[in-house]
Amino acid sequence: MAEEKIEQSEIIARKANLVSVMQEENALLDRILEQQTILHNCVKEKDWEKLNRNIENLQTLSDQFVELEEKRMELSEGLDMAGDVEISPVLSEVRGKLQKSKVENKVLNEYISTTRKFLQGVFDSVVPQRRNVLYSNKGQIVKPELSSVVLNQMI
Question: What is the model's pTM?
Fold first, then answer.
């Protein structure tokens, strides 16, 4: 009986710690989502200095999230998180914000990819490149590099 009370109190303490860690994750995800929005705006505005600063901030937040996630994994071992009435709402909120973050990343990656393809198309049509495949002396394919482009300016 005494052992059951100790185990029960340990489980209650683990759940309380788990909810606390997940609430920290939740707050951190809010900050990450803010940084992702700023990052997206930096790319659109072509503010490269601000972009670099925000990438560093986002990396720091991401590292903090990984630490919290490791704690959460330890605390949740052997617990039914989805079925627990105390843990389930916080878990749903964290999962929702993670999904939103994933969508933000996907949107930014698609924007960058589309822009890269557009610019590559412009360079391909403006700058004549060799279309033949070149090989190095070791037999590897050598990608042709862009040659210099000089534009005439009328002043």
Answer: 0.69
